[in-house]
Every structure is written in C-alpha cells, then in structure tokens.
C-alpha cells in the first residue's frame, strides 16, 4: 500500500508541474507547508465562487426565457371572414307561431309571477331575462329543426334570419356584392348568421373603407323577443379555419349607427416546450370537436364532457358530437313535466359553467394549451350616427313601397317620412376593412441559448480558475492516468510485492555481507598484530618483555 500511495503522490506532483491551470502548480511546487495550505485555501475559494456562478448560469438557462421579435411585412392578403349575427336570435312572430315551447316560454316570461315550469322568479329582473335567454339557447336545436323544415312560402315560415331579412345592401372593394358572397352559419346563441368571404376567395391589396366590406343591415325591432335587451348586430372577424364564437369574440354594432371596424392582421409564433406551454398541433380530434385547433372550442368541448358526466345530457350551446348515446338537455314535450326537466337541466348546466374549477381543469397545459401558431385580427372600432339628416336610402325614394315594414296597415303607395323614421330605428351600417396592408409578425426566440450559457461558463472558469479548453483536456488526461494507475495496480500487486521482497532481501544480504566483511577485516587485523608481536619478541627477547597481548585485548 505504501508503494501505491507513493506512486499516486508522484502522479499528482507530476501533474502539478505540467498543468496550465492556475493555482495547482503553486500547490505542487510549494516547499513550505504553510505556503501550500495558503494556495489550497485560495484554490478552494475560487472553486466555490465558480460553483456559485455556475449554479446561477444553469438556473438562468433552465428558465427558458424568450424574446419577442417584431417585424413588419407587406403583401396582398385574403380578406378576413366576417360573421354577422342579429342580436335577436329568432324572429318573434315566427318562433312563437311555430313552436309551442316558445309560446309557453313567452307567456311565462311576460307574467309577473313565479313559474315553476321554467324556473322564473316572481320579479321581472335581470336574472329573469338571462334565464329566458339561456332557455332559448337550450332549445336552439329544436328551433333550427323548425327553420330547416320550413318551406319559406310565407313571411312567418322561417323563425331564423335569412340574407334578405338581414342585409339591405352590400358593397365590397367599391363593387356591389350579393347573396352568393355569403354563407349561412348556425350559432346556438344568435341563431342563423351570415358569413362573408367564408371561402376566403376575396383578396385585398389596398387599405381603407372604400376597399373593404360595407353592409347596410336590417334589425327590425318589432320582431325582437321580449328578453332580447340590445338592438343591433354582433360582428365576428376571423380566419376561414377558425370557428366563430360571436358570444365570446364579437363586436356590437348598434342600430342607428355607422360602425367602422378597422382590422390589422397579426401573425404570432410562439416557442414550444421547454420555452413555453403552447401546442404544436394544428388539427385535433377531441371528444366533441374535430378540426383546426383553437383554445375556445377546446375549452367548450371539455366543459361539454363535464356537463354530460354530471347532468346526463348534452348542452346544445356547446359543441357536441351528434349521436344517440346522450340526449339533449332540452326535453321534447309540451307539458309541465318536460318544461320542468328542461329547467332542472339548465340549473345543472349553469352550476358547471359557473364553476371556476371546471375552467381551471379545462385550461391545464395538458388539456387546452395555447397554439404555437396564431393568426388574429386586431380590431379598432369607431361609430357615427346613421343615417344622417341629408341621406335618403334608395328604398325611401321608390314610388311603390307596398309590402315594406313601414307601410304595413297603410293604403298609400309611398311615405318618405315613415321610411326615414323606420331606417333610423331598425337599420345600421357597418364597414370592415384593413387599416393598413402591412402587418405584424411576432415571433419568439430563446433569450438565453445554450451557446450563450457555455460562453459565460467558459468566462467564469477563466476568471476564477484560469482554465481554458487545454486545461480541460489536461484534467481529462489526469483522470485517464489515475484510472489506468488504479486499474492496473491490482494486476501488478504480486509483481510489486515481489519487488518489495526482493528489495528487502537485497537489503538483508547487504547487511549480512557487510557483517561478514567486518568480521574478516577484524581477523586480518588481529593476525597482523600477532605477527608484529612475534617479530618484536624475537628482536627484543633480552629486554623486558611487554605484556603479552591476548585475544581479549584484541
């Protein structure tokens, strides 16, 4: 073991002589123990300082912070899809005339007493109005079935709004547009809506209201349900691949105003894990929603799953994969039992939707994260009074106005005053256009890259330890030497022991030889002394003899 420790010590001292790392050569070359201890303390302090900095740098890198870079691009772009819905989802006369459920709901709402069938309190307040609105949404599938089955032979056949019911005139890019530019879209909250540029065939290369969409819309308040509290339309601007949700992302345009909606296209690219929590998925297959990934339908699908789980039925106001497995929370039937069951289902739905824990559950990273690629339209809204005093719509100048809403019950062919008054109370103007053709591209990039981290670590190593890449290879070489020395020591242990035995034997033989040589030298000297004594005795035998030398004297 002594040979091993000596060899290991020699290996370390040899490394201290040829390493380029600062501090280590001072430890190996110091002859005085106090000087050596001083350099050991200095090196340990520098190593501790480096480790503190190393921890900070690694923590900074593992934070995965990002920088948001903004650049402007300019090119011709598709015009966005514009979804327009009447704030009143169903025409009063048609809906009540075709649906016994709507008729009974209207009667219960108009009465100033409590209704157990529909869950109305005795007072006619905001809660009563909101409940009637949700009960109408609950029956949306039922009303859509009536709308689809109607033949349109009379004005009262279809409870939903058609293109002719909503749109008085349309212009796009300074040219007239018609019904072929629009598509019908069903929304549980707002009934049948109109979508302009639903296939994104219309492009835009110039900014400003003249080169956008201009609509004069009709929202006849005489056909409003009694619980519809606002008059006008709601506008949702989105991409072709996105599902519109006017109730969540729409903009109100009130009656009697001209609403100008200037849009700016914004493209956002986020960094995925580990830098962020966004999802790289573009298409999803969720339990109640399939198609282009969006956060809003994902959350609604998740909420629908919870409603089905707790209430045993699906809510028509949320996306649902049609099938016979679960019934609708709207119960078909024209009696108190059916109405009360529908009302009880609504209570269950409200409890789940208003539960914050459900929203938290549905917005967890593993459920509904933000998408990494997002295309949005930032919208700026401005309004003005509509129509102005000097403006006269074309319909008000026609010689024959028979059949128009303002001429109901009148015998004359035209009435300009009534026409202008009706327009002020039942129409509005909206303009949707690009504010500018250049658009923002927002992209995230790592704020602290791996290369930056390595560079800073190398700087701290040089500052505290005076090391370089060469020094790293030197320590690597030392580890290899130590590994080789340790691993090969066991295989050479017998050899080392034999060498040790040989050295001990040689030392013993040397001692024995020296002892024998000493004995021979002592005998030779004794023999020499005897001879000298005998010669002396022969030459001086007559003289007094000196004392005889004995072996003991020698």
Structural class: alpha+beta
Per DSSP E runs of 2 or more residues, the count of β-strands stands at 17
| Unreliable spans | 151-156
| Count of individual helical segments | 17
The overall pLDDT, averaged over residues, is: 84
Distance between the termini: 48 Å
Bin the strand percentage. Answer: 15-25%
| Largest sheet features | 8 strands, mixed
Give a quick summary of the entry.
With 554 residues, the chain is of the alpha+beta class. The chain has helices spanning 2-18, 24-29, 33-62, 92-98, 100-110, 126-138, 140-149, 163-166, 246-249, 295-311, 336-353, 356-362, 394-397, 416-426, 450-465, 469-491, 493-539; strands spanning 66-74, 77-78, 81-86, 167-172, 175-176, 182-187, 191-196, 203-204, 213-218, 232-238, 251-254, 257-269, 283-286, 289-292, 373-385, 427-434, 438-446.
What does the model show?
By secondary structure, the chain is an alpha+beta fold. Helix content is 44%, strand content 19%. It has helices at 2-18, 24-29, 33-62, 92-98, 100-110, 126-138, 140-149, 163-166, 246-249, 295-311, 336-353, 356-362, 394-397, 416-426, 450-465, 469-491, 493-539, and strands at 66-74, 77-78, 81-86, 167-172, 175-176, 182-187, 191-196, 203-204, 213-218, 232-238, 251-254, 257-269, 283-286, 289-292, 373-385, 427-434, 438-446. The strands form 4 sheets. Strands 1, 4, 5, 9, 12, 15, 16 and 17 form an 8-stranded mixed β-sheet that branches. Strands 6-7-3-10-11 form a 5-stranded antiparallel β-sheet. The radius of gyration is 49 Å and the shape is elongated. The model is unreliable at 151-156 (pLDDT under 50).
């Amino acid at each position: 073991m002594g040979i091993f420790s000596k060899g290991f010590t020699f290996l370390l001292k040899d490394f201290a002589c040829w390493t380029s790392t600062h501090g280590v050569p001072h430890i190996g070359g110091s002859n005085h123990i106090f000087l050596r201890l001083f350099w050991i303390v200095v090196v340990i302090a520098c190593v501790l300082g480096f480790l503190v900095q190393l921890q900070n740098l690694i923590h900074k890198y593992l934070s995965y912070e990002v920088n948001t870079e903004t650049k402007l691009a300019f090119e011709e772009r598709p015009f966005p899809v514009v979804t327009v819905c009447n704030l009143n989802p169903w025409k009063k006369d048609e809906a009540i005339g075709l649906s016994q459920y709507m008729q009974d709901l209207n009667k219960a709402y108009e009465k100033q007493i409590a209704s157990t069938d529909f869950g109305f309190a005795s007072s006619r307040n905001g809660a009563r109005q909101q409940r009637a609105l949700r009960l109408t949404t609950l029956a949306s599938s039922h009303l859509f079935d009536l709308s689809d089955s109607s033949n349109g032979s009379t004005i009262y056949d279809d409870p939903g709004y058609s293109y002719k019911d909503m749109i008085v005139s349309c212009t796009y890019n300074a040219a007239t547009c018609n019904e072929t530019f629009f598509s019908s879209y069903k929304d549980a909250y707002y009934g049948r809506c109109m979508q302009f540029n639903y296939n994104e065939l219309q492009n835009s290369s110039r900014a400003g209201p003249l080169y956008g969409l201009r609509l004069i819309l009709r929202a006849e308040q005489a056909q409003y349900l009694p619980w519809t509290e606002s008059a006008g339309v709601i506008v949702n601007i989105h991409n072709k691949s996105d599902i519109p949700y006017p109730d969540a992302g729409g903009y109100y345009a009130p009656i009697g105003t001209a609403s100008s909606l200037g849009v700016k296209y914004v493209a956002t690219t986020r960094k995925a894990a580990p830098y962020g929590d966004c999802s790289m998925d573009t298409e999803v297959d969720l339990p109640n929603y399939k198609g282009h990934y969006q956060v809003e339908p994902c959350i609604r699908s998740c909420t629908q799953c919870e409603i089905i789980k707790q209430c045993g039925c699906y809510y028509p106001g949320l996306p649902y994969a049609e099938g016979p497995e679960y019934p609708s929370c709207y119960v078909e039937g024209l009696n108190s039992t059916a109405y009360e069951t529908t009302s009880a289902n609504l209570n269950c739905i409200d409890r789940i939707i208003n539960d914050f824990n459900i929203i938290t559950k549905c917005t967890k990273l593993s459920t509904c994260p933000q998408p990494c690629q997002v295309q949005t339209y930032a919208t700026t809204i401005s309004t003005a009074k509509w129509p102005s005093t000097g403006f006269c719509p074309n319909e008000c100048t026609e010689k024959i106005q028979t059949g128009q809403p303002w001429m109901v019950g009148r015998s004359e062919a035209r009435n300009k005053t009534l026409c202008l008054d009706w327009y002020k109370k039942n129409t509005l103007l909206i303009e949707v256009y690009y504010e500018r053709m250049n658009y923002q591209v927002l992209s995230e990039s790592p704020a602290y890259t791996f290369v930056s981290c390595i560079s800073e670590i190398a700087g701290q190593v040089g500052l505290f330890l005076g090391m370089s890449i060469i020094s790293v290879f030197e320590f690597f070489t030392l580890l290899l030497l130590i590994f080789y020395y340790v691993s090969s020591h066991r295989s050479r242990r017998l050899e080392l022991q034999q060498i040790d035995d040989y050295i001990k034997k040689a030392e013993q033989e040397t001692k024995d030889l020296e002892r024998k040589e000493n004995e021979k030298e002592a005998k030779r000297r004794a023999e020499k002394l005897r001879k000298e004594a005998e010669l002396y005795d022969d030459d001086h035998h007559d003289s007094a003899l000196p004392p005889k030398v004995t072996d003991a004297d020698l």
